[in-house]
From TrEMBL:
GO terms for biological process: rRNA processing; tRNA 5'-leader removal. One of its GO terms (molecular function) is ribonuclease P RNA binding. Component of nuclear RNase P and RNase MRP ribonucleoproteins. RNase P consists of a catalytic RNA moiety and 10 different protein chains; POP1, POP4, POP5, POP7, RPP14, RPP21, RPP25, RPP30, RPP38 and RPP40. Within the RNase P complex, POP1, POP7 and RPP25 form the 'finger' subcomplex, POP5, RPP14, RPP40 and homodimeric RPP30 form the 'palm' subcomplex, and RPP21, POP4 and RPP38 form the 'wrist' subcomplex. All subunits of the RNase P complex interact with the catalytic RNA. Several subunits of RNase P are also part of the RNase MRP complex. It holds the Pfam family RNase_P-MRP_p29. Belongs to the eukaryotic/archaeal RNase P protein component 1 family. This is Ribonuclease P protein subunit p29. Component of ribonuclease P, a ribonucleoprotein complex that generates mature tRNA molecules by cleaving their 5'-ends. One of its GO terms (cellular component) is nucleolus. Keywords: Nucleus, Phosphoprotein, tRNA processing. It comes from Urocolius indicus. SMART domains: POP4.
Length: 200
């Protein structure tokens, strides 16, 4: 059993720990009224900021050659299965490409579709050397298509001043490259306007 002095010392120490911001005189003043409200000071937890994972910059991607296709992989036959997958993707997108399908509806969907794996042909161009180039689209950038031809040659064809055609199940669609200069990832949200005549 504690004596009166030990008990008083314990209470004083306990109150001082419980109310660290108050002075001893103020605590004694509270004790005279025989009512003590203990304060609670929770330990503040510092929130750790989540670091966002940053991707590679365009310069880093070029230095690492992430988008370059090795010469031994530049073969037309390798990418034929990709073309078959693309055809199935377009059929599903256009609900089977039925004969009674409205051409402008199919055209609208093709303009927003992913063209990686499509067989493109340059039908018109201000540069005659591009006309007739046909191949599977390996990569699409904002301003150019990278196409692998049947001769196993990788061609970089600019979109500007070129008209391309693609054919699937008898349906032929034309793409005016000058109006098509947009990244593939952004094209699905773009609204294309139908125009009667478009110059190269």
């Amino acid at each position: 059993p504690q004596g009166a002095e030990e008990a008083k010392a314990f209470v004083d120490a306990f109150l001082k720990r419980s109310m660290p911001k108050m002075k001893a005189e103020a605590i004694q003043d509270i004790l005279t009224r025989k009512a003590v409200v203990l304060e609670h000071y929770p330990n503040k937890k510092t929130k750790q900021k989540r670091r966002k994972t940053k991707g590679f910059t365009a310069k880093q991607r070029r230095e690492m050659r992430l988008f370059e296709i090795e010469p031994d992989q530049q073969r037309y036959s390798i990418f034929l299965p990709l073309h078959e997958l693309w055809k199935q993707y377009i059929r599903d997108l256009c609900h089977g490409l039925k004969p009674d399908a409205q051409p402008h509806m199919v055209q609208t969907k093709l303009l927003k579709a992913d063209l990686h794996g499509a067989i493109l042909t340059v039908t018109k161009s201000k540069c005659p050397s591009y006309v007739g180039i046909t191949g599977i689209v390996l990569q699409e950038f904002k301003h150019v298509f990278k196409i692998i031809t049947k001769e196993d040659k990788l061609k970089v064809v600019p979109k500007l001043n070129n008209v391309f055609s693609l054919e699937i199940d008898g349906f032929i669609s034309y793409i005016y490259g000058s109006k098509f200069q947009i990244r593939a990832s952004e094209r699905s949200a773009k609204k294309f306007k139908l125009k009667g005549t478009i110059d190269l």
